[in-house]
Amino acid sequence: MRIAMLLAVGLCAASARATEALPAPDARAAYSEFRISLALQGWKPGRDARTGPTCTSGRTRICETFAEAVTCQRTTPSRCLFLWKKNATQIEVETVGSQPYGIRVDQMRCRAGCAEEGPPWTGIDR
Prior knowledge:
single chain; 6 strands; disordered N terminus; six-stranded antiparallel β-sheet; alpha+beta; signal
């Protein structure tokens, strides 16, 4: 009985670690600063530059600067998408802007492993 209870507690603790709360950036935070904040909270880039070419469209300087970039559309203003992961949770961070160190966080979305509550996209207050 004691072993069963310990196993149940262990499973509950493991599932609690599997879902992570979405990080909360300041309104229109600079992505270059927000990514440092993510790293300090234990988040890791969701893609690795060594796993293949960086994102395939548009703003190549942004894609070359940030290994976690997935796509970056050549629009005005540009919209780029970055992946981050922590334990079993994966998030997408969408930015607006055209220069690598001038892009700003616009919204975030849980891609996998997040708690059920909350909207799928979290817009950043302007």
